[in-house]
Amino acid sequence: MSPAPAAALLAALAAAALLADRVASVAVIAAVLFVVCLFGPHGRRKLYVAGALLSGLAVFVVTPFVATVGWHVIWSGPTVPVLGQLDVTREELHNGLFQGLRLTSVALAFAAYALLLDHDRLVQSARFARRSVLAIALATRLVPTLERDASGLVEALRGRGVEVTGVRGRGRMLVPLLAGSLERSLNLAEAMEARGYGRPGATRALQASWGVAERAALAGSVLIVAIGGLWL
Amino acid sequence: MALARVDHLSFAYPEAYQALRDVSLDLQAGEVVALLGPSGGGKSTLLRALAGLVPHFHGGRFSGRVRVGGLDTCRSRPADLAGTVATLFQDPEDQVVFTRVANEVAFGLENLGTPPAEIGPRALEALAAVGAAHLAERPVAELSGGELQRVCLASVLALRPRLLLLDEPTSQLDPEGAAAAIELARESGAAVVLSEQRPERVLDACDRVLFLQDGRLGFELPDAWRPREAELPRAEPSGMPVCTLDRVSFAYGAVPVVQDATFCVGRGEIVALVGPNGSGKTTLAKLAAGLLEPGTGRVERSGRACYLSQDPGRYLVRERADEEVALAVDGDLPRARRALASVGLAGFEERHPRDLSSGERERLALAAVLVAKPDLLVLDEPTRGVDPPRKDELAALLRAKATERATLVVTNDLVFASEVADRYVSTVAEREQAVA
Q1: Residue B100 has pLDDT above 60, yes or no
Q2: What's the complex ipTM?
Q3: pTM of the entire structure?
């Protein structure tokens, strides 16, 4: 399938997860997106799926302690400055689960987009806002580029007999990785300008026209958003 | 009439040194010009000025005039010059926009407004010209450095420019690949300005030579830059083996890279590991250093091994140069400072590694591995982007303490290999001293 309708389908599922009112509905959307992500490349999908699940879990764990909703108290804790008395209610747990699933769904939709779609074709098929689509595609490539840079840094350190272990050791890689990606982005911008990027009258290579599947996926995207807003 | 004319050009980057000083030159249509000079001498800046990137992209203080194809580069944006000028930058990894090879080559053609029906065929034609047609559908991330350099060359050749600016286009290519790339540039019919650190690779193919040092243009080549003959040394293995590879094989996934490789490196000797791009040299080096485990076969090492990556950008973890070097010796700063001094970086201790020039980064990376005084030192393409005088210094540095360790140098630079090594092993089976 052409990547544009596939991206629309994923965006629609994420939007439906944000519009839906029921926990079960959002859970089903998250489950569907999880299964979709499993079709991604084996080596890379672990990072994306783990990131999505851990973000959702963090929201589920933290929400009951920072929200003050409901009266069915399950656990009462000490009084903490600024936050007040810590307690966990059934309503807070429900809310935490709901928000956690929503975040998981959106993160899994992004993961599926990053893992499964051909971003080149997505940029080339963009009929409008091509610059914005290219910017998004380049931003999406940031994650695998950072993965590669990180493994290069770790390998160079191992080559000097320095092992990178633990959260602290890996955390120390973040600043050089960020600095490296900023340096690369400047070089890339220069190379793009030298190749005529931003010049008026740009064309694009011939693309295969959309078939029935692409049109159905686009219609399905609209339907999913509507169902998410009205019934889920 | 000249295709490009540079008149009394001087330029300084914002809050930085004077990169070009009163440079004047003419470039005629179809001529091939070698641009030589030490690292930091202004070669890349001159190429950027011809492409309009200096001053438009970088800012800075610009005086003089540059005209290319009748356009004043101060008044025309780099994107407007793109049809006339095409630039191949030094680091191929920093100029790739798309994830698939064919799309990457098509990108420039799309920007120039090439008719849609012509884009695909022209991209494939350019890929075929550089011998990379089989890579068209491959993801860019899976290519080796040499393959990526070919793809970037195809990207600029596809534009059919009148002025082709190549900034060290052969730094990651083996000698045959480099000769083919330069020949392609010559055959393109464009005027070519070819910046290089290895004069022996370009001088025969060029119509004339420019030498740029400290931002000043000269037309005479200093003696240290004259091409040298490469004769690979063939001494017998000597010294107690520090590292032995015995019938070692290795594959990345299902792709075999090394098969049945056998060689050893003894204490006191420097062994050059040579071979064409993609023949598994870096993989063998990593196996020798213990960064990879062999699929089959046996690797034996005695003592500490250190591996110098071919990318100096991987030695920029800490905030100060001395702290970066001290990483390998548990933070021993005095020792790190001595190592910095040994590679000519005395006085750079407090500098941030990212503020160093590319040549200085190379030396910092070397200090970062030498400081550990390893029993086995593995250097992967240590002369990439290094000018001949600095190569001589590096060779002298390696030779000076060669007796204390075993040294394996992976290189495409046969001149350097012939000057630094005691013997060589090759990844090509047909050669006499083949390893695989």
Answers
A1: yes
A2: 0.84
A3: 0.81
